[in-house]
Every structure is written in structure tokens, then in C-alpha cells.
User: What shape does this take?
Amino acid sequence: MWVVVNGSKHEVPDALTVRAVLDHLGLTQGPVAVEVNREIVRRAEHATHRLSDGDVIEVVQFVGGG
Amino acid sequence: MPRKNARALVVGLGGLGCPAAIALARAGVGHVALLDDDEVDPSNLHRQILYREGDVGAPKVLAAARALEAFGGSSRFEPIRARLLPETALELVRRFDVVIEGADNFPTKFLAADACGLAGVPVVHGAAVRWYGTALAAGPSGPCYRCLFEDIPEDEAPNCDEAGVMGPVVGVVGALQASLALGVLDGQAPFGRLFTFDGKADTLRALAVPKRPGCALCAGPRPRALAREDYLKGAACRAPS
Assistant: This one.
């Protein structure tokens, strides 16, 4: 299936979870906040929320520096 | 509100707070309070642009106020040499029209979000690590910092001394925070958009942040007070000793 992550189209295996897509794309450095189709998916649900073809995903790194 | 009558609080006079405070002062914000309990360290100088080598060891808020006053202009500066604390945060933020949060640790970021949410004061959050930074303005009715980031991370999230921060990245994000704060003071509502800046890819993205049902801060009944134990997690971002 195709998903859009931070504005770029990616082909990924069907029905991956949010966490699996993050792993697939190498977005594994530290915690992230994720929106799927403009709704926030809580961190606790990243490992279970399954994605569908055409989903639009935004991944924001959760950083604490200043 | 005329800017000369406006009151802004900058929480954290580090890489983000320095450029933000400069921009607020030069935009004519009448009263700019500066909150930080730290001293200037040599490792700060590449990105904390209010300080010079001679300031090393001085309290940041005093060095910052001195540098801002040296520019001239009509702003008044109020240095507050303290940490933001659950016991006093609500009372403090109520005195201001807008808060810029550029703290270097998660507990202070969440405390600023909660205090401003409870007090009904707009807050502009900023954060940066390495080549990546984010900014988000939150209005009194949300969406808020907790809609997106929920709670202090249990797992390791990078902060600045562990990971390092590129000077230009905090310059971009701090200036963007000031721009959002001026929007608030000018009566616009620049709320609910998260900006991400990637200094390696040279991309700035704006992302609409929806209110999250069940958000502990802005959905449903709000807590009335701030409890110290809610902020006793995570490590501060300090020079390694």
C-alpha cells in the first residue's frame, strides 16, 4: 500500500501498524507524536493502530531541548 | 492591544529564549520578563546569542537583561532568577498576556503548558535538538501541547546537552516563537499549528494539530491546581558535571 509520511509518498507492506511504518522508514530515534488523517494517534496505540492505503501520516519528533 | 502595553514572559533564556526576547523587545513589547535559574556556561555561547564570553558564570537573566537594555528602546525587562515551579507557576503566568516557553527540559515544558492552560494565558512552545526544532502556539481553549505530546516521556527523548543543538536551528525556532507571540499580542489567533524545522533537509513544515479527545489539559474538566509529583520525571538539560 501507499502512505504519505511528512509529505512524501512511500510504498509499505499492507496493514502495517504505525509503529511498524516508523520502523520501516527508520524513524526510530526517540519518541514521536503521530497524526493519521489529521487525528492524533496516542503513543500507547502506535503499536496497534493499523494503517490503510492512502493514509496521510505526520510524524513529529518529541524533543526537549532549548 | 498596543504592544507598548503588552506583557510577555520568556521561560528559559537559552538558545530559544535569547532570540525570542530580542525579537519581542525590538518589536516594541512594553514589558518582557525573563525567567531562568541558570548561569552562562562556555558551552552556551555558540547558540545563546545574548551572552558574550565575559558573561560566563553570570546569572543568565541578569546578563540577558543587560544585553537587551544596551540596545535601547522602550521595553522594560524584569529578570526573574528562578525555575518555573508548580507552587508558583499559576500566579506567575497570570501576570502576562503571552508566555514563550523555551525550556530545556520536559517537566518545565509540561508545567508551562499546564499553568498557562489553567490560567487561560496563550503560550508559545519551542524545542530543538541537533538539526531539528518545533514550535507550537496554544490558546486557552486548546488544542494544546498535551494534545500532541501527552505527558513527560518515560523513554529517553533527546534533550540539548545530551544531543547538542545547532545554533542556527534555535535561531529559526526562537524567532518563529516570537513571531507567533506577536501574532497573539496583535489579536490574531495563530493557534493549533505545529511548525517543524529540519535544518539538514532545510524544510519548514506547518501541521494542523487537532484537539485530542481525552486530553488531560484541554478536554473535559481541567485540574484546578498543579501537583508537584506530576513534574518529577525526566532529567534537566544541564552541562555535564
User: Anything to note?
Assistant: The longest helix of chain A spans residues 18-24.
